[in-house]
Every structure is written in structure tokens, then in C-alpha cells.
Specification:
Layout (H helix, E strand, L loop, with lengths): L5 E3 L1 E3 L2 E3 L6 E6 L2 E10 L5 H13 L9 H17 L1 H12 L3 H22 L6 E4 L5 E8 L2 E5 L5 H15 L2 E5 L6 H12 L7 E3 L4 H10 L5 E5 L2 H11 L5 E5 L5 E4 L5 H13 L11 E5 L3 H12 L20 H16 L3 E4 L18 E4 L6 H4 L6 E7 L2 H8 L4 E2 L1 E5 L3 H10 L4 E4 L14 E2 L2 E2 L12 E8 L8 H8 L1
Parallel strand pairs: 1-5, 8-9, 8-11, 9-10, 11-12, 13-14, 13-19, 14-17, 16-17, 19-20
Antiparallel strand pairs: 2-3, 4-5, 6-7, 7-23, 12-22, 15-16, 18-21
């Protein structure tokens, strides 16, 4: 379908361009690290060019982008259509570079990306302000205007869908964008840029600069030409971005890490819950901030439920990411694999019981890739490193609780607050628990269901702001007050006193 290696260039001011540095880095197949799949431009010298293009497109309203909501709506709708026309090609790219299974990309990420663009295409013409006539006859109007240039810094685990989640509301609002995609998975951002341009986006509206976070990302965050930064990634990096952005007081939207609990009460539908717990922990290879990586299960059903979960985990088929039969693929990089295995080693050193998995897979093809067995760690106490820290891999910890109150306490006993699942056939209990858990998204008797109509973002150290829904657009709008004197009469009395004095 594609010839590899891909040559990934920059997209600036409406066209693909070579990097000024002349340098490219190599990207190897995470499922077969002897195979070169891409060379990626080093755009460290080209950030200024991209920012100038975005700034000029916004300030001069090139093509009417900032003022013509009908244009923005048409472009987003058309781009969604182009994504669907190229769905299979995009799915292959997503999986090849990230290591996620082809079924995940084909059935989830690519169609969801199109849905996100369509949603915000429908929002673009509904960003209406308000007005009020005062008793004096004067008019106060609140006008919504696009905030300016947006820097979007995206992660490698969901290259296309998270990119769309970050930039679609910004584009709907009339902003222009510069994207720095993750170095492991840069192709999707460039492809989206080409599709937006093909759909009619004016030059300079959407730009992509590849390169490292230490160079490209740092310059974007610090630049006075950027008005809003949207970053998705790990919490430590988000803290650094927030600190760097403070120098220019730009807005920051952060969707950061998670250590998400799946709370299973004794009265839950255990069959359904077991399926969802396994899906929540191991979907996307466990490389997700939304992963339900902590199973909290009521003590009265703990042994039975853990057996059900482990039975399902043992049936997960680990394989090459483009293999139609694979349920879980390789981790995105050797570095990520080693990090996950280090956590598994910490379980051993803490004396925890690994009841399935826990090893790198090295037989046959697996020896050339970043394959790790889906792992379950039993009886994980709240003070354990594995309970508290985000592993970002196929590792599920199990902790039992006795009461509803203890379940909530355990759920809230990390620095994160991104997502949670609650399983109970007692609606009152489920809703009480959902209300008390400190998380930006709580699923009741389901997990990982995330349509664009549901807000996404975290409490505590899981982030600031919300992606998805109409709430996301507000990050990219300025609210201007306009006061119109409807009387056209003399100055206000207090002005006369000043003037006459």
C-alpha cells in the first residue's frame, strides 16, 4: 500500500518544504526494529517560518479564515470526507508508526478523527455572542473573536485522533495553527495538513514542524507569536510547558497523565465488568492516559473476579501491529518497553505477585520488536510505585476494598484525576461513587467510551482545561465587550464634574 521509508517533510504556508537544517532522523518499525520505516525532518531552524506564516494568516485574515465561519465549516466537513476516503491508508500509517493494532486504527482512531472534525464543522457557525440594552438605552455587546495562533504539541499514542481533538476546535474558532507532532509518529500531522489544504484551508492556516520537544516544542511555547498552547502528554512535561508559557502569559490547555481506577462492586455484572476491565487496561497496548490501569475490586468477589480477568488476559493475542489477528501490538519504542519492564521489575522487588505476564516476548519475530506480555499484578498496596505512578504499558494492578468509602479513598489516592470506571447494579451507589471520585470523566457500567460530545480533561495533575464538546472552543476565543452609547446626549454627570473642575 505504501512504499517505505516515508520521507516526512515540513508543511509550512500551504506546501511541503524541506528542513533548513538539511537533517533527517530515522524511525524504525516498533514491531520489527531492523526495518526503517521513515526519515523525519529536523525542523529546529524552521519554527520561525511556520510561526510567521500562521501569524500572517491570522493577522491579515488570509482567505477570510478568521471572519468567514462558513468557510471554516466547509473546510472541516470536507476534510472529514477526505479522511474517510483515505481511511485504510491512514489506518496503516497510524499502526505502522505507533505499534497499535490495525483494528484499533481502522475501527477506532480514523473514523473518530473524521467525527471530531464534523462536530466542530457544525460548531463553527454557532459561536454567537450576546447583547443587552441597558435602561439608559445604551447597548452592551459581548463579541467572541478567535484568540490567535495556536501551538499544538501532540503525543505518539493516538497521533491522528488526539491531533484532531486539539486542533479542530481551534480551527472552528478561526485560529491558525502550528503543530509539533511526536517524533515517533509524525506522518499523520503532515497528512492532515495536506488534507486541510486540499479541502480549501488558506495558506498559513495549518502548519507542521517536526523535530524534538527540546528545540521545536520549546520555541513554540516561548514564542510571543503564539497565543494558546495545547499539549497532550506526560505530566512532568506539562509542568515544564506551563512554566515556560508563563513568560508571555499565554493560555495553556493541558491533557496530562492518568492512573485511572476501575471500581468493581460486588453487585456488578461481573461478566460485563471483566470484559471492560481487560479492554480498559490493554487497549492501545496500555499506552493511553485513559487506561484503566488500577483494578479496585470489592473483597467479597475479589478472587472470583480476578480469575475472570486473568482468564481473559491470557487469551489476548500479541502480534505484529498490521496483523489482522493481533489484539495487542508492540510498544512504540525500545525506550518505552524498557520503562514498562522496569516497573514490572519493581513489582518483583516490592514482593508483589505477578499472576500473569511480566516478561518481554522474544521468540521468533518478537525478538526484533518491542513486545511485552499483558501483565496483572495482584494485591498491590496504595503505597506501591505501581499503584501510584503512570506506567503507560500493558500492566494492570489489583487492589481490594471493603466498603464504598474505602473504594473512593483508594480511587482518589494518587496525584492524578483523569478518568475512572464504576461498576454496580445499584444506581444510587454508582452515582454517589462517580460524584465523589476526583476525575474529569467517570464511566458507569462501561469504560473507554469517549465520543466527541463528552468533555475530556483532568482534575489535579491530570491537566487544565477540556478537550471535546463545545467547551473546548472557549479556549480559543477572546470575549470582547463593546459599549454603544445610544443616547448621543451630554456626557455623564460625573464627567461634567471633572471637566468643570
Amino acid at each position: 500500500m505504501f512504499e517505505t521509508p516515508f520521507v516526512v517533510d515540513l508543511f509550512i504556508d500551504g506546501e511541503l518544504v524541506k528542513p533548513s537544517s538539511g537533517r533527517y532522523s530515522e524511525r524504525f518499525d516498533p514491531g520489527d526494529d531492523g526495518r526503517l520505516i521513515g526519515v523525519v525532518a529536523d525542523g529546529s531552524r524552521d519554527v520561525g517560518r511556520a510561526l510567521d506564516a500562521a501569524r500572517d494568516a491570522f493577522d491579515r485574515d488570509v482567505g477570510g479564515w478568521t471572519t468567514d465561519h462558513k468557510l471554516r465549516s466547509r473546510v472541516l466537513f470536507k476534510t472529514a470526507e477526505i479522511i474517510r476516503e483515505n481511511a485504510e491508508k491512514l489506518a496503516v500509517v497510524e499502526s505502522l508508526f505507533s505499534g497499535k493494532t490495525i483494528r484499533t486504527s481502522r475501527l477506532g482512531d480514523v473514523p473518530r478523527s473524521a467525527e471530531i472534525l464534523e462536530f466542530y464543522a457544525g460548531v463553527a457557525d454557532k459561536l454567537i455572542g450576546t447583547s443587552q440594552v441597558l435602561k439608559t438605552g445604551d447597548l452592551v455587546a459581548i463579541v467572541k473573536q478567535p484568540a490567535g495562533v495556536v501551538a499544538a504539541i501532540t503525543p505518539w499514542n493516538f497521533p491522528l485522533v488526539i491531533l484532531c481533538r486539539q486542533v479542530a476546535p481551534a480551527l472552528a474558532a478561526g485560529c491558525t495553527v502550528v503543530v509539533k507532532p511526536a517524533s515517533h509518529t509524525p506522518v499523520s500531522a503532515v497528512k492532515l495538513a495536506e488534507m486541510l489544504h486540499r479541502a480549501g484551508a488558506p495558506k498559513g492556516v495549518f502548519n507542521v514542524v517536526t523535530g524534538s520537544g527540546a528545540t521545536v516544542g520549546r520555541e513554540l511555547v516561548r514564542s510571543e507569536k503564539v497565543d494558546v498552547v495545547n499539549f497532550t502528554g506526560e505530566t512532568s512535561t506539562g509542568k515544564g510547558i506551563m512554566e515556560a508559557a508563563a513568560g508571555t502569559l499565554k493560555r495553556v490547555v493541558l491533557e496530562l497523565g492518568g492512573k485511572n481506577p476501575n471500581i468493581v462492586f460486588e453487585d456488578a455484572d461481573l461478566e460485563r465488568a471483566a470484559n471492560a476491565v481487560v479492554y480498559g487496561a490493554y487497549a492501545n497496548n496500555g499506552e493511553s492516559c485513559a487506561a484503566g490501569s488500577r483494578l479496585l475490586v470489592q473483597s467479597t468477589v475479589k478472587e472470583k473476579f480476578v480469575r475472570m480477568v486473568v482468564d481473559r488476559v491470557k487469551r489476548i493475542r500479541v502480534g505484529y501491529q498490521l496483523d489482522e489477528n493481533s489484539d495487542m501490538g508492540p510498544l512504540v519504542s525500545r525506550e518505552q518497553m524498557e520503562k514498562v519492564l522496569e516497573y514490572v521489575g519493581a513489582a518483583d522487588s516490592e514482593g508483589l505477585k505477578i499472576i500473569t505476564g511480566g516478561r518481554r516476548i522474544t521468540s521468533g519475530l518478537f525478538s526484533r520488536g518491542n513486545y511485552v506480555e499483558p501483565t496483572v499484578v495482584d494485591d498491590t498496596p496504595p503505597d506501591s510505585k505501581l499503584f501510584k505512578e503512570e506506567i503507560f504499558g500493558p500492566v494492570l494492578t489489583v487492589t481490594e476494598f471493603g466498603s464504598e468509602e474505602e473504594a473512593v479513598e483508594l480511587a482518589n489516592s494518587t496525584v492524578y484525576g483523569l478518568a475512572a470506571g464504576v461498576w454496580s447494579n445499584d444506581t444510587g451507589k454508582a452515582l454517589r461513587t462517580a460524584e465523589k471520585v476526583k476525575a474529569g470523566a467517570v464511566w458507569v457500567n462501561t469504560y473507554y467510551t469517549l465520543p466527541v460530545e463528552m468533555p475530556w480533561g483532568g482534575f489535579k495533575q491530570s491537566g487544565i482545561g477540556r478537550n471535546n464538546t463545545v467547551l473546548a472552543v472557549e479556549h480559543y476565543l477572546e470575549h470582547k465587550g463593546i459599549y454603544v452609547d445610544g443616547q448621543q446626549g451630554p456626557m455623564r454627570p460625573y464627567y461634567r464634574l471633572v471637566l468643570s473642575g
